[in-house]
């Protein structure tokens, strides 16, 4: 609730005549603030900054994933993306190349992410009660990552294929046809 309230009141403050300009920063200011935050958070002990921040972020992430799962179960959306597309030969608009080894890299992502969550996070290794908990936490992270991957797959599959490919195609590919259509529309208005 606090997150939703902060998003709402952030919009209110952004349009305020005094606070809006006072809290609008240049790109370089934000960059240096992030660098300073990273430096300070690297120096502070885990219990002071990383553990509370990651703990709160975990609730937000779990809430979003549970919301996605409930939405999929309740709404039962129609999957519009075909199971196999004509791009299976590696000539698709999103990437060029063979399906193998890309398919195995995609499947292994959950396992790699579970391992990554165990060893690369700033807090996980320091918060383990004993070393034997590492397998449970790493495997659980892998399962949760796989669950997130299924949610992302369903979210991508309910979009019309043409719209999905247009959203994920580089700007250079679709910029010229859009400019051409705009010119045609301008000519017909005259």
In terms of topology, how is this protein built?
Elements: H1 2-14, H2 19-22, H3 27-43, H4 50-75, H5 102-119, H6 124-127, H7 133-157, H8 161-168, H9 171-189
Helix pairs in contact: 5-7
Strand content: under 5%
The arrangement of helices and strands along the chain is HHHHHHHHH
How much helix is in the residues?
Answer: over 70%
Name the overall outline. extended
What structural class is derived from the secondary structure elements?
Answer: mainly alpha
Cα distance, first to last residue? 52 Å
The count of strands amounts to: 0
The whole-angstrom Rg is 23 Å
Task: Describe this protein's structure.
It contains 9 helices and no strands. The chain has 190 residues and is mainly α. It has one domain. The model has no long low-confidence stretch (mean pLDDT 79).
Please give a quick description of this structure:
The protein has about 190 residues and is mostly helical. The chain has 9 helices and no strands.
Provide the descriptors you would attach to this structure in a database record.
190 residues, mainly alpha, 71% helix
